[in-house]
Amino acid sequence: MMSLISFSNWAAGEGANPLIPHTAELIVGFIAFSLLFLVLRSKVVPMFEKAFAERTEAIQGGMEKAERAQIEAERALAQYTTQLNEARGEAQKIREDARAQGAAIIEDLRSKAAEEAARITAAATAAIEAERQQAVTSLRNEVGSLATELAGKIVGEALDDQVRQSRIVDRFIADLEKSK
Amino acid sequence: MGVRLAAEDGFQPPSTADFELPPVFGDNPYTTKPVFLVFFSVILISVFFILASRKALVVPSKLQFAGESIYGFVRNDLARDVIGHEFMRFVPYLFTLFTFILTNNLFGIIPFLQFPTMSRVSFPYVLALFTFVIFHYVAIKHKGLITYLKEIMFMPGVPKPVYVLLTPIEVATYFIVRPLTLSLRLFANMFAGHLLLLVFILGGEHLLQGVIGLKLVSPFAFAFGIALTFFEFMVQCLQAYIFTLLTALYIAGALADEH
Hints:
The structure holds two protein chains of two kinds. In chain A, helix 2 packs across helix 3 (162-179). Mean pLDDT of chain A is 84; it is low at 1-14. By secondary structure, chain A is mainly alpha-helical. Chain A contains three helices and no strands. By secondary structure, chain B is an all-alpha fold. Chain B has eight helices and no strands. The relative contact order of chain B is 0.12. The interface between A and B is large, with 42 and 55 residues.
C-alpha cells in the first residue's frame, strides 16, 4: 500500500492517489452491480436451474424407463425359460410314457405269441398223441387178426420144410403189403 | 494520452494519471470511460445470459451451453463445493460477482475498450463492501450476534492469555483485513497489469519514433506487450475467480458451526 502511494507521488504529480475512491464511481458501481444482480437473479438463474432440473429429470426418467424395460425383459425371459423347461419336461414324460407303453405292448404281444405257440404245440401234441393212440389201437387189432390169420395159415398148411416156411412168410408179407 | 503527445521533450512513463480519465461530456463525473464500461458490462452480461438461458432447453444450444458452462462453474465448483447444502441461496450473488468482475477485467485487453474497470479502486471497494455485509449478515442470522462476536473475539479451545494476542488479530481479520485485501488484491492486479501493458506498448511506440537503433528494439517491446496481454488474460480470469472463491469461503465460514 505504501509503495503504491509513493508510486503515485512519483508519477508526474498529476494523478490522484489511486486508492482514494471517487464518489461517482462508487455510486455507479453500486447501481450497476445491483442492477446486474437483479437481472441475473430474476431472469437467468431460474432459467438455468429449470434447465438443470429438467435435464436431471429427463436423465433420471430415461434411466427409470430403461430399468423398467430391463425388469420387464428379465421377467419375460424367466417366463420363457420356465415355459421351455416345462415343455421340455413334458416332452420327456411323453417320450418315457411312449417307451413304457411300447415296451408293454411288445411284452403283451410276446406273451400272447408264446401262449399261442404253446397252445398250438399242445394241440399238435394232443393230435399226434390221439393219432398215435389210434394207430396203436388199429395196429393192435390188425396185428391180432394178422397173427391169427397167420397162425391159421401156418396151422392149415404143413410146415414141413424150411422152404415152405419161408414161402409162407413171404406170401404173408406180400399179402400184408397188398392189403395195405 | 493528450498529455503525453503534448510532451515532445522525451518519453513520459505511464503513471496513475493514465487511470484518471476525463469525463466525456463537460465535467460530469458520470460520463467517464470507466462508468460507461461498467454499464456496458451490465448490458453485455445481461443480454448474453438472458439469450443463453431464455429457452432453457434440456438439450442445450451452443449459446445455452456456453452460458451454462459459466453458470455451472460458479454454481457447482464455487458455490456448492465451498458452501455446502445451503449454497443455492448464494448462487445469484456469486454468479453476478464472478461475471461482473470477469467481464470488467477482460475489458483491459479487449481491443478499443482496453481499460480494466477494476483498476478504478471504487468498484472493488463496492464489491468488497457487498461481500463484507453479506457474510456478516449471514453469520449474525445463522449464529446470533452475541455468539458470532464471541466466536470472533474468543476463539474456543485457546488458552486464556493467548487472547491478548489473538483477539485483536481476529477482530482485525474479520472487520478490516478481509474486505480490504479482497478489494485491494483485485484493484492492484488490474492496476499493475494495465500499467505494465502501457509501459511496453507506449514504450514501443516511443522507440519507433527514435533513431534507427531504437526502432530496431521497438518490435521487442511490442512482442513483450503482446505476451503480457496473454499473461494479463490469465490474471484477469484468476482474479475474478479468487474474489468469488474468497466470498464463498467467507460465507461458508459464516454458516459453519464451531464445535
